Prior knowledge:
single chain, 72% helix, 6 helices, globular, mainly alpha
Amino acid sequence: xxxxxxxxxxxxFTFVGWSIGFALVLLFIxxxxxxxxxxxxxxxxxxMGLGVGLGQRRLLRDYLAGITGWLGGxxxxxxxxxxxxxxxxxxxxxxxxxxxxxxxxxGVLVAVVQWRLLRPHLGKAGWWIPASIIGWAGAGGTxxxxxxxxxxxxxxxxALIYVAIILGGGVILGAATGVVLRRLPRLAxxxx
Length: 192
């Protein structure tokens, strides 16, 4: 029998994925801006969804053989609410945009999609949904913390502190989901 997923490793892989996602967000924003789509928000969801999905999928493949769709499901689910915002603007629909709330809505979608992927492999997989929502809300909350609680520090020091807090979202997401994931029993007959 494969041992339980190590919590520290899950947190590390999620953090690395979140960090890769942050870099992808910057890259996708630069690309969208260079082709005249500078005000779109979808690059945020796509970049972060790809990064987190990639980081977590890497470890999950060692832990749950046969699990598929994690990367695509995470990326598409997190991108969806950002895309709704992007499509609503040109249609004249007044959707108030908040980065933190859009991440949380995307996190709810991610939680449901990932739960469906975990369900054939793990018993009590329903616990994944609240854990994932809490993780995404905490990770998205780093934006609110930066905007509302952190004093304005000009220059490179302020930028570094801002980015460090945002990157801490990966640790929050990894801890919230990892605690539950490592406790979910594997189902008999599931590919492990």
